[in-house]
Amino acid sequence: MFNSLREQIKKFIGRTEEIATEKEIKEIRILSENVTRKTEDTALHASDKTTGQMQTVKRPTEPVWLTQDAGPSKQDEKEVKLTAMTQIKGIFKKTVRLTEKDLDGILTDLQMDLIQNDVALETSEAILEELKERLLDKDIDKDSLDLYIRVSIKKTLFDILTPDKEVDLLEMISEGEKPFKIIFFGVNGTGKTTTIAKMARYLMDNDLSVVIAAGDTFRAGAIEQIEKHANNLGVKVIKHQKTADAAAVIYDAIEHAKARSVDAVLADTAGRMQTNANLMDEMKKIVRVNKPDLKIFIGDSLTGNDALEQAETFNNEIGIDAVILTKMDADAKGGSALSISHITKRPVIYVGMGQTYKDLKKFDREWFINQIID
Ligand code: GDP
Ligand code: GDP
C-alpha cells in the first residue's frame, strides 16, 4: 500500500540530508580557507616582528605552525595556533540551517511527486507551505536531522488529515436516539453496496442491531444486490419496487426500526455522475424527508481526483459529515485520503481494505501516516 508515495517521501528525506551534508562541507571549506588565510597573515606579521624583514619571508602554503623555517617566536606561534584551533572548532557546529534556496529544487520535485500520487494541487501547496514553515531557517541538530525531517513531514500530514470535527461512529450511535440514521452517498462502482454490507457486519459485531434501506431505486439490480448481501449477513432489508421514491423507502426503514427498537438504519442511495441534477435533487429530498444523523460519502481511493471531485460536489449539495474510502488495499498512491480530508475538512472514518465483509478498518491517521513514512 502507498508504495509510490512512500518512495517519493523517502527520496525527499534522503536528498534533504544530502543537501545538508553538502552545505556543511562547503561551509567547512570556506571557513578553513579563511582560517588558513588569517593564519598566514598572522605568521607574516609575526615574522615581521622578529626579523624586521617582512619582504624576505615567503608566504607559507600550509598553516604556519607546520612550517619550521618562517621563524615566528614561540609565544607568537602559540597565539597563532590558539586562534586557528578556536576557529576550526567553531566550524564543527552542532546544527544545520536549511534555507529556501537550499531546498527550492527538491521541494518543487516533492510537489510534483505528491500530485502524481493523487494529492490535489491545493493540498500539495498546503503541504509544502507547512513543511517549509517547519524545516526552513531553523537550527536543526545535525545528529537528529533525519528524525527531524520525518517528524516534520508526519506533523504536516497529520494537520492535513485533521478535520473540522471528529466523528466517532460507535459513540454517536450509543449516545444518540434510536434508531441512528446513516445515509450513504456516492457514485456507482465505488464500492458503496459492499461498504454498507461491511458496515452492517461491523455494527452487529459491536452488538448493535441494524436494518438496511434499499434506497437505490434507480440502477437495475441495485435492490437485488443489497438484498443478497443482507441475506448473507442475516439483516432485514426494507425495499420498494424499482423507480420508487427513494426518500419514501428510507422513511419506511426508519419507521420499521422505530417500531422494533433497532439501533441503526443504513440507507443505500442511487449514484450516477455526481453532476447529474436529478440525482442531486433526489439526494436533497432524501435528506429533507429523513433527517439523517450522519451523511457518509463513499469514495473509491483508486480514482484520485475523481473521488475528490465527487466528495466536493456531494458536500456542497447536501453537506457530508464523514468519508469512507474503499479499495485502499489496492491503492499504491495514498493521495486521495489527504486531498479529500484537506479540501472537505471532513474526517475519513473507515477504509475498505478488501472484498470480504470484515475488511472495513477504522481509519487511524497515525496508522495511515506510518504507512507513508517508515
Ligand atoms: P457499488 O456499485 O458502488 O455499489 O460497488 P460495489 O459494492 O458493487 O463494489 C464494486 C467492486 O468493488 C466489487 O467488486 C467489490 O468487491 C469491490 N470492492 C469494494 N470495496 C472494496 C475494497 O475495499 N477493496 C477491494 N479490493 N475491492 C473492493
Ligand atoms: P439519464 O438519461 O441516465 O441521464 O437519465 P435522466 O436524467 O434522463 O432520467 C430519466 C428518469 O429517471 C427521469 O424520470 C428522472 O427523474 C429519473 N431519475 C434520474 N436520475 C435518477 C436517480 O438518480 N434516481 C431515481 N430514482 N430516478 C432518477
Describe this structure in words.
The chain has two domains: 3-161, Up-down Bundle (Four Helix Bundle (Hemerythrin (Met), subunit A)), CATH 1.20.120.140; 169-372, 3-Layer(aba) Sandwich (Rossmann fold). Helix content is 56%, strand content 11%. The chain is built from 13 helices and ten strands. The protein has helices spanning 3-51, 74-91, 100-116, 121-135, 145-161, 169-175, 192-205, 222-233, 246-259, 277-290, 305-318, 335-344, 365-372; strands at 95-97, 139-141, 180-185, 210-213, 236-238, 264-267, 294-300, 322-326, 348-352, 360-362. It binds guanosine-5'-diphosphate (2 copies).
List the helices and strands and how they pair.
Elements (H helix, E strand, L loop, with lengths): L2 H49 L22 H18 L3 E3 L2 H17 L4 H15 L3 E3 L3 H17 L7 H7 L4 E6 L6 H14 L4 E4 L8 H12 L2 E3 L7 H14 L4 E4 L9 H14 L3 E7 L4 H14 L3 E5 L8 H10 L3 E5 L7 E3 L2 H8 L2
Parallel strand pairs: 3-6, 3-7, 4-5, 4-6, 7-8, 8-9
Antiparallel strand pairs: 1-2, 9-10
Bound molecules: guanosine-5'-diphosphate (2 copies).
Notable traits:
binds guanosine-5'-diphosphate, Four Helix Bundle (Hemerythrin (Met), subunit A), alpha/beta, Rossmann fold, 374 residues, eight-stranded mixed β-sheet, elongated
* Overall mean pLDDT: 88
Biggest beta-sheet profile = 8 strands, mixed
Provide the helix percentage. 55-70%
The proportion of residues in beta strands is 5-15%
Instruction: Kindly name the structural category.
Output: alpha/beta
Helix count, per DSSP? Answer: 13
Instruction: State Rg.
Output: 33 Å
CATH class of the largest domain: Alpha Beta
Instruction: Count all strands and give the number.
Output: 10
- CATH superfamily of the largest domain, please? P-loop containing nucleotide triphosphate hydrolases
Named once each, the bound ligands are:
guanosine-5'-diphosphate
The outline comes out as elongated
* Overall domain count: 2
Low-pLDDT segments:
52-60, 62-71
Spell the H/E element sequence.
HHEHHEHHEHEHEHEHEHEHEEH
**Name of the CATH architecture of the largest domain:** 3-Layer(aba) Sandwich
Spatial order of the strands forming the largest sheet: 5-4-6-3-7-8-9-10
CATH topology of the largest domain: Rossmann fold
